[in-house]
Amino acid sequence: MWRPWASGLVDAVYPPACLLCGAPAWDDPLGPLCPACARRLPAPVARCRRCARPAPAAGGGPGCARCSGPLALRDALGLGGPRAALAGVVAGADYAGAARELVLVLKFAGRRGAARVLAEGLAEALRAAGTPGDLLVPVPLSARRQRERGFNQARLLAERLAVRLGLPLAPPRALQKRRHTPRQSALSPGRRRRAARGGWRADPARVAGRCVLLVDDVLTSGATARACARALRRAGAAAVVAAVACRAAYGRPAPHPAAGRV
Ligand SMILES: [Zn+2]
Ligand SMILES: [Zn+2]
Fold this sequence. Notes:
By secondary structure, the protein is α/β, with parallel strands linked by helices. The protein has helices at about 1-15, 35-40, 65-70, 75, 95-110, 115-130, 145-150, 155-165, 190-195, 205, 225-235; strands at about 90-95, 135-140, 175, 200, 210-220, 240-245. The protein is globular, with a radius of gyration of 18 Å. The protein binds zinc ion (2 copies).
């Protein structure tokens, strides 16, 4: 009983610093964020189920105009469609504004509380889209990157989603990255696709027959998500949907030099 009281007292004397601006903030399920930064969090928007770009809710189809046309972009991207390994993408926010700042403080300043805020938006988007899924699989880092960073931001997001959605979280060996690749943001789109190809291995004992929600922080070109989805499907997963905290605008380079999937 004394713990909540004691931590409340500590918060009153030394309020935690806002994740984004450092101002005093109250720690709550969505934080710590100061009121001004909390107001900057993006509101949920309707998105295309295949590519996760913002799309009008009306129209009834599962895809946006770009994903439903005769020469659909989804085929070029390999996102969605009956033949694609990746059945669709759900995103909590665009990779911009406060959502992008949260990703950056999570990955590069180690502010793990940011994962909580990002996961909240993603859980909301998954619920709103009615996305089926019975296993959360975070996109892994290579062993080397994991050592450098000390944590995997995708696993932090997936841990929080497991609590919020009541879904099981796959153990690290369910999907593994076999070799280290350079930071994706340092690569051209063509080299990024080649780097993402291969190098992933999924464990059939963990994923066969499951509807996998593949969790990651940012989806840019979708190359990593597609490569992971192929490995999961080869291991017998029934379906794979990418669940990402943020969706970067396709074709626009990530504005932060180190902001790509690493
Ligand atoms: Zn703030
Ligand atoms: Zn679309």
